[in-house]
Structures are given as structure tokens and as C-alpha cells.
Write a structure and sequence with these properties.
single chain, mainly alpha, Hect, E3 ligase catalytic domain fold, 5-stranded mixed beta sheet, two-stranded parallel ribbon
């Protein structure tokens, strides 16, 4: 039980109310003092407010008191954000006590009502996981509202025409031919109006029912296609470990818009977006305008080239035109302006060239992608996200807790015993001795991604036996572990020794083809 501090009403709340009532000049002076605090003292202020809020929530809820405390936290949050280097991480403002589905739904309904108190007005207190839950709540409630409208319409239609009621599916279902996955994916989604429904996939000629597995299978293969260099959709950026849009003239804006739609569908349906985009893209998706400063983070090599061009001082025959030999095209020969290949870059127009190049990289194709993404992800909940949080929700997290993974792993068949079989004991001993890179490779092998979904990682280990057709010529120790990536399942054989298990596991996670989707 959290106790309310004895001096809350007599000292702390009156003090906070006086602080919040300061005039603008005095408030700025106070902010500068807060900025000078060491992180430990600053964190203590946040923690004091947080504990008081939780204590009030656990007793007799007083909206005015909680609002004052939240406004104080908001002031501290803005101070923290205004520093060139944050005093503490933005995650220090999170209140994990709020990350409960029932609490969040109640708060969301208050937020939508607008006139009621809601923590959603102070989004810095919600963790990424809490915001993901809010997004799911928003989607579910919107579907419920649509179903009510559809139900009334169909009942009226049935009464008018004397026909049997038929409810249209609340899901967005696409039929995909596996051997034409990319082409079908592009074609099937282009003309769909309502993209905000739960997304389901049906592979033509297959019996699989989409209970997450088929959908994940589809996205894993689609992302592989999107990353294929022959598609010319995305390119790796030099010196940094991420992708950006190729902006190739052979790829239309419509294509990037569809790619944005599918990335939005993945985010909305809880599928990890296994495409390594930089933080700047998520800033763009949340409505920020990208600038030259962002280019430095996206493509530092290009940024340096443009900076060298901008600072070049001509000397005699060493002119901009003779030294750089550039026209108004990109490194990939895409024209930056009309007839750009016939216009040389010179001292008098180099700023126009730089501006055109920056605009091309930051907006061409990126705008179309963002438009597609926002057609799916237009919920007001997205306004609560920071770019870092959207990036974590979309692409997964690298905040690994391998011991927690062991705790939550489920077992089936003869491995699901109170006393774990020796092969399971060996497995975890081997796993915890793997290097960090090997553990990430294991995640990719078993789940299709090296990152952890925001809702947490689920893993199932089940027995696998040798093929009867192999007879005695093949030993159990000759088989590699097998992964069913769509369902996060590892099929592990009952190896005869820990050493064999270690050898075969390491082979499996580095071998293409020893997994099934």
C-alpha cells in the first residue's frame, strides 16, 4: 500500500500551485535553476510527484491534486527536453502503474470525452507498451462503433427488402498467391478504402487460418521483397547501420505509398517492422519537417559532400564547375530539376543544387511513404508518441532480458514436465553462454527478427524426433534444431550430450533454410 505523504496537503501541493502560478519571467528563472541540477536531484523531484500521484489514486482520488502534480511533472519534462543534453532519460517520467488495460481503457474513454480528466493529456507518463495498448483499445472501440452502424443498416435493409441479415467482415482480408506475393500484395491494397481494420491474409490454395501466424509469414516474405536490391526501393546508407529511400526515378510515388500502407498495417497489427529505418523517419511519420540537420543523421557521407561543396573557395581555374564536375542530378543520375542533366553546378547556383538535393533525399518518396503510412495509422493515439517510442513499437526493442526469456518460455509434449528434461537444462546452459550476437541470431532464427516486440517475446520449445524414413543410418545427433518462425516455435531434438546440442544449435542459427514460416 502506498501512503500519502503527511505534508502533501499542507506543504507540497500549496508549494507546487505557487510554482505553477509564477509569471513567465520568474518561471524561466526557475527553469534555468532546474536545468543546473544534477540528474539525481532532478530525478528525485520526478519521483516525488509520481509517488504522490500513485498514492492519491490508491486512496480517495482528487482530480485537482493529481492535475497539479502532473502539471509539475510536465514542467520538469519540458525543462528536460529543452536541455542540449537531457538531464535524465524521458523514460524516467513513465508511470508503469498505469500500464493496465482496464485503467487505460477507462482513461482513453475520458480523453475522447474531452471534458473529463485524463492522463492522456500528459502522454509523457505512458510507456511505449502503454501507448501500444491505447492504440489497440482505440482500434477495438472503432471497430465496435462500425459494427453497431453496420448492424443497424443491415437490419433496416433486411426489414425493407425481406432479406436475410448478413454482416460484412470487420477484417481487411487479402488473398495472396505465394508465388506472386509481391505483385499481389501491391495490387490487392491499392483501392481499399478502410485500412484501419484488423489485417488478415489468406494464401491461395492453403488451408491455414490466420491467427497471427499466416499474417506474420506474409510480412516476413514481403519485407524480404522490399529489401531486395533489384526492387530499388531502399538503400543502405554509408557509415550508418540503417536504410533510406533510394528515390530512384524508376520507382513511382504510388509504389512508396503502398509500401507505407503495408508498414502501417504491420504496426497496427502488432508485427515487428524488421526494416532498419533511422529515427528521422519516425519524426517524419509523426508530422515533423525534416531539415539539413536530419540529413546529417540519415546520410552523413552525402551531408559531408554537400558541405564541402558549400564551403569551397574558388581560386583561379579551380572553380566549382571544374573541380566538382557536377550537374543537377543525384549520384544515381536522377534529375533534381527539369533538364538537370544539362545544367552544370557552378558557384552561382550551388546553393540551389544543395537545396534541391536535400529536398530530394528528405521529401521525394518519403512524403509518399508517409502518406501511405498515415492512411492506416491516423489514430489520435499516435499524437501521444515520441519518435523514439514509435520506432520502438514499430521495429522492436533491443532491451534484452535473457533470463526473463527463459522464465516465460513454454514447453509442449514430453518437454512440458515439472522437472525439466536434461536436454532443456542443457539448452539454457548453452544459450546463456552464447555471445550477444549469437543470441540475436537465435532470435532471428526462431522469430524472424532480432528485436523484441513491444508486447514482449513469446517462445515455445517442443520436441522433434528423427524421420523414420532415415532409419538407423542417421543418428538423432545429426539433425539440426528446427524453427517455425511464424509461431515462435523451436523444435529441439533429444540430443545425447550438451556438446552436441551446442554444436547443432550454433550451426542452425547460422544456416539459411533450417526454419519454416
Amino acid at each position: 500500500m502506498v501512503l500519502i505523504p503527511e505534508n502533501l496537503d499542507s506543504l507540497l501541493l500549496p508549494f507546487i500551485e505557487k510554482l505553477l502560478a509564477l509569471d513567465e519571467y520568474s518561471s524561466r528563472i526557475l527553469d534555468r535553476w532546474y536545468q543546473s541540477l544534477e540528474s539525481g536531484f532532478f530525478l528525485a523531484l520526478i519521483e516525488k510527484c509520481r509517488k504522490c500521484i500513485i498514492a492519491i489514486m490508491a486512496s480517495i482520488f482528487c482530480e485537482q491534486d493529481v492535475t497539479s502534480l502532473l502539471k509539475m511533472m510536465e514542467k520538469l519534462y519540458k525543462v528536460n527536453e529543452s536541455c542540449a543534453e537531457s538531464i535524465v532519460s524521458f523514460s524516467e517520467f513513465y508511470m508503469p502503474e498505469l500500464c493496465i488495460a482496464e485503467v487505460l481503457e477507462f482513461d482513453y474513454r475520458n480523453w475522447v470525452a474531452t471534458e473529463r480528466f485524463s492522463f492522456c493529456c500528459y502522454p509523457f507518463v505512458f510507456s511505449t507498451k502503454a501507448k501500444a495498448l491505447l492504440l489497440q483499445i482505440d482500434m477495438n472501440l472503432r471497430i465496435d462503433e462500425e459494427n453497431i452502424v453496420d448492424d443497424i443498416f443491415m437490419r433496416n435493409l433486411a426489414a425493407l427488402w425481406g432479406i436475410e441479415e448478413q454482416m460484412e467482415s470487420t477484417c481487411l482480408i487479402v488473398n495472396i498467391r505465394r508465388d506472386h506475393l509481391f505483385e499481389d500484395a501491391i495490387k490487392k491494397i491499392e483501392d481499399v478504402e478502410n485500412l484501419k481494420r484488423p489485417f488478415r491474409v489468406k494464401f491461395v490454395g492453403e488451408d491455414g487460418i490466420d491467427e497471427r501466424g499466416v499474417r506474420k509469414d506474409f510480412f516476413l516474405h514481403l519485407f524480404e521483397e522490399l529489401l531486395d536490391p533489384k526492387r530499388k526501393l531502399l538503400r543502405p546508407c554509408e557509415e550508418v547501420d540503417h536504410l533510406w529511400f533510394s528515390c530512384d526515378e524508376c520507382v513511382s510515388d504510388d509504389m512508396y505509398r503502398v509500401v507505407g500502407i503495408y508498414c502501417g498495417l504491420a504496426v497496427n497489427n502488432g508485427v515487428v517492422l524488421d526494416m532498419n529505418f533511422p529515427l528521422e523517419l519516425y519524426k517524419k511519420l509523426l508530422g515533423a519537417d525534416l531539415t539539413r540537420l536530419d540529413l546529417k543523421q540519415i546520410d552523413p557521407v552525402l551531408d559531408r559532400k554537400l558541405q564541402i561543396l558549400a564551403e569551397f573557395v574558388e581560386n583561379g581555374e579551380n572553380t566549382v564547375e571544374n573541380t566538382f564536375c557536377r550537374d543537377f542530378t543525384t549520384d544515381a543520375s536522377t534529375e533534381l530539376i527539369e533538364n538537370g542533366k544539362n545544367i552544370a553546378v557552378a558557384a552561382e547556383n550551388r546553393n540551389d543544387y544543395i537545396n534541391a538535393y536535400v529536398d530530394h533525399v528528405l521529401h521525394k518518396s518519403v512524403d509518399a511513404f508517409a502518406n501511405g503510412f498515415q492512411r492506416v495509422c491516423d489514430s489520435k493515439v499516435f499524437k501521444l508518441y515520441r519518435p523514439e517510442e514509435l520506432m520502438e513499437m514499430a521495429g522492436g526493442s533491443k532491451n534484452y532480458d535473457w533470463r526473463e526469456l527463459e522464465k516465460v518460455t513454454r514447453y509442449t509434449g514430453e518437454y512440458n514436465l515439472t522437472r525439466k528434461p536434461k536436454v532443456i537444462v542443457w539448452f539454457w546452459k548453452v544459450f546463456h553462454c552464447l555471445s550477444q550476437d549469437e543470441k540475436e541470431e537465435f532470435l532471428r532464427f526462431t522469430t524472424g527478427s532480432s528485436k523484441i516486440p513491444i508486447q514482449g517475446l513469446e517462445l515455445t520449445i517442443q520436441p522433434k524426433m528423427k524421420n523414420e524414413s532415415d532409419g538407423d543410418a542417421v543418428s538423432i545427433n545429426d539433425y539440426l534444431p528446427f524453427a517455425r518462425t511464424c509461431f515462435n516455435i523451436l523444435e529441439l531434438l533429444p540430443y545425447e550430450s550438451k556438446a552436441t546440442l551446442k554444436t547443432q544449435l550454433k550451426k542452425a542459427i547460422k544456416t539459411e533454410g533450417f526454419h519454416a514460416y
